[in-house]
Amino acid sequence: MTPGPPLLVEAAPVYAAELRRHLDEFAPDLALIVESLRIVKRCICSQESCASFHSLTLPEGSTHSDIGSWLGDGFLDLGVITEQGNRQIAFVDLTGRPDLRKELDDGLRQLR
Ligand SMILES: [Zn+2]
């Protein structure tokens, strides 16, 4: 296993693959970095269908833009920041996908 917070692709490969395919269509630069997304902090809400997480620790006062779209039956909101001209995914907000939430829960438990 790679050191540092768990990689999304290691914890939840189905989730990662769906996200990558989805982004391929309209944000290929972001699709490329799905492989390197780390689960720095899970969302702490109690919704059973929420599979949201932070992939970067946002510097205080930093600004991000939101990219919203449907992902299957769920709604995806990506928080995107630009660092040295490159777009980075700061957080992945995904609600309405209990299947991916479960994959994430199970995967993280196994990695621990
Ligand atoms: Zn949540």
Count the DSSP helices.
4
The domain tally reads: 1
- Classify the helix fraction into a percent range: 25-40%
The set of bound ligands, ions and cofactors reads: zinc ion
Structural class, by secondary structure, is: alpha+beta
Query: Mean pLDDT, rounded to whole units?
Result: 94
Instruction: State the separation between the terminal residues, measured CA to CA.
Output: 11 Å
Portion in beta strands: 25-35%
List the strand order in the largest sheet.
1-2-5-4-3
CA-atom Rg in angstroms: 13 Å
Characterize the biggest β-sheet: 5 strands, antiparallel
Number of strands: 5
pLDDT < 50 stretches: none
Q: What is the global morphology?
A: globular
- Could you give the order of the helices and strands? HHHEEEEEH
Question: Could you characterize the architecture of this molecule?
Answer:
Strand 3 (65-71) and strand 4 (74-83) form a beta hairpin. The chain has one domain. The protein has helices spanning 8-11, 13-26, 28-33, 98-111, and strands spanning 41-42, 53-54, 65-71, 74-83, 86-95. The protein is α+β, with helices and mostly antiparallel strands and 112 residues long. The chain starts with 7 loop residues before the first helix and ends with a helix. The chain has four helices and five strands; from the N terminus they run αααβββββα. It has a five-stranded antiparallel β-sheet with strand order 1-2-5-4-3. The mean pLDDT is 94. 34% of the residues lie in helices and 28% in strands. It binds zinc ion. Zinc ion binds next to loops.
Question: What tags apply to this protein structure?
Answer:
112 residues, alpha+beta, 5-stranded antiparallel beta sheet, 4 helices, 34% helix
